[in-house]
Write a structure and sequence with these properties.
The chain has 10 helices and 17 strands. With about 375 residues, it is α+β, with helices and mostly antiparallel strands. The chain has 2 domains: about 180 residues, Aminopeptidase, CATH 3.40.630.30; about 180 residues, 3-Layer(aba) Sandwich (Aminopeptidase), CATH 3.40.630.30. The strands form 3 sheets. Strands 1, 2, 3, 4, 5, 6, 9 and 15 form an 8-stranded mixed β-sheet that branches. The chain has a 7-stranded mixed β-sheet with strand order 8-10-11-12-13-7-14, sandwiched between helices. Strands 16-17 form a two-stranded antiparallel sheet.
């Protein structure tokens, strides 16, 4: 047992230290409004934020944090609780002392035999070994799908070096030529988009959830309002996807919080996961946001949707040329029980293995993309 540090739950006095360390570790700020939305205003948080703190006993200084956000997932007919781990950070002066492992062991001891079945999260490559060390499974790599609409503006916001500013627009223009002809081979589907209300999304989710047995976030009205309406600076727009004039799914579009002027397909559901309807809806979204630098989304848990995005012309972060610049991330998961093994039933939820990539339905709303 390490006697240099106390591992404990977050207290209000830790807020400034958390925000300061976030800026130091991730090299970008987190506003207090965003912190409160994420860790305090979450409708599943009861008393105080579920943030683990590593405090140096000698000085009383906070040496590390591990954020935990409760969520409700569904697989088939069953709803269950889980923990999403966010914002794992250790101050540079305290690294290589086992603090991250100690915080995870605190998590396991706190939620062992609780109603929270497992934790999952999205790990940067630099932190992946720490997750694997405590028994987590690397389920699949995270793949960003990006359609470049204005390559000149994009590279000016991404790159400082003149070489990349000169090369990238020409490289992308060459690549995109092979995708142009595919847009003319579109099925004759009467797909339209109309602006909707958040209550419409819950109705669509209720029908869609009866059609899938994949593990996914429960999109009830309480969750939808917190995740999208209340998210600081998200500026969400809710589009109902109609087929022959009748609702057949939805898209939620938000601002992508980076240096570019980009739109994000933040969440989407299509009845029966129909890739042709999905593709037509994405094309209509592109038409509405054609003045943006890029359109961004995820579809790596749906091979059919992923293929549809490629046909439209979306690039993937795991392929050339984006794999030269985009940081690798991985979707990881582990039961919250203290003791686990490879054959343990704790790895299954309603017959679905949490370590199987085919078990999951993931969109950007499943992660902490801002």
């Amino acid at each position: 047992m390490n006697t240099e540090y106390e591992i404990r739950w977050f207290e209000e006095k830790d807020t400034n230290a958390f925000l300061d360390m976030f800026q130091l570790v991730f090299e970008e700020p987190m506003s207090e409004d965003y912190f409160n939305w994420k860790y305090i205003d979450n409708p599943l948080v009861k008393d105080k934020p579920l943030i683990i703190v590593a405090e140096e006993l000698k000085t009383g200084i906070q040496a590390g944090f591990r954020g935990c956000v409760p969520t409700i997932l569904r697989a088939g007919e069953e709803n269950f609780k889980a923990i999403i781990t966010y914002d794992g950070m250790v101050h540079p002066d305290h690294r290589r002392r086992g603090i991250s492992t100690m915080m995870y062991k605190f998590l396991f001891s706190s939620f062992n035999e609780s109603s929270y079945k497992f934790y999952h999260g999205f790990s940067r490559e630099i932190a992946l070994f720490g997750h694997l060390k405590v028994g987590a499974i690397n389920v699949f790599p995270v793949t960003d799908s990006v359609l470049i609409l204005n390559s000149k503006n994009l590279v000016e916001s991404m790159f400082d070096k003149g070489f990349y500013r000169l090369l990238f627009p020409r490289l992308y223009s060459f690549y995109s030529l092979r995708n142009i002809f595919r847009l003319f081979r579109r099925p004759k589907l009467n797909v339209s988009l109309t602006l909707g209300k958040i209550e419409d999304l819950e109705k669509i989710y209720n029908k869609w959830s009866q059609q899938t047995d994949k593990i996914h976030s429960v999109r009830d009205l309480k969750y939808l309002k917190w995740r999208f309406n209340d998210m600081p600076m998200a500026q969400p727009k809710y589009f109902i996807v109609n087929l022959d004039g009748k609702p057949n799914g939805y898209f939620i579009i938000t601002k992508l919080f980076d240096k570019t002027d980009s739109a994000m397909i933040f969440d989407y559901l299509i009845y029966d996961d129909n890739p042709s309807i999905f593709k037509e809806a994405v094309i209509k979204i592109i038409e509405k946001y054609k003045d943006k630098d890029t359109v961004f989304t995820w579809a790596f848990t749906s091979p059919e949707f992923r293929s549809a995005l490629r046909e439209i012309g979306f690039l993937e972060s795991t392929r050339f040329p984006f794999n030269r610049w985009v940081r690798k991330r991985f979707f990881i998961t582990r039961p919250t029980a203290m003791e686990i093994d490879d054959n343990n039933k704790l790895w299954e939820i309603n017959g679905k293995s949490i370590s199987n990539p085919d078990s999951w339905y993931i969109t950007p709303s499943s992660c902490d993309i801002r």
